[in-house]
Design goal:
Length: 75
């Protein structure tokens, strides 16, 4: 998976999955706009474990689905 994809392409290929993106491109608000997909999985913990294994220098982890209404997100 060395192809650079836009966030729309990533969401289309990996629907409702957690995605590890190496060298993400971001906008002025630091929203991820694209990058190289290194791993994806329905299990968030599996993606975090993979990030620890490969230790990318710059990365983002995004979820491509819709969060349930009762989900809290801490920034």
């Amino acid at each position: 998976m060395d192809e650079i994809l836009t966030i729309a392409e990533i969401a289309g290929k990996f629907h409702s999955e957690w995605v590890l993106i190496e060298d993400p491109s971001t906008d002025e608000f630091l929203d991820v706009r694209g990058g190289t997909v290194r791993w994806h999985d329905k299990d968030r913990d599996a993606v975090y474990r993979r990030a620890v294994e490969i230790r990318p220098k710059r990365f983002a982890i995004v979820y491509t689905g819709t969060m349930p209404g009762d989900t809290a997100i801490a920034l």
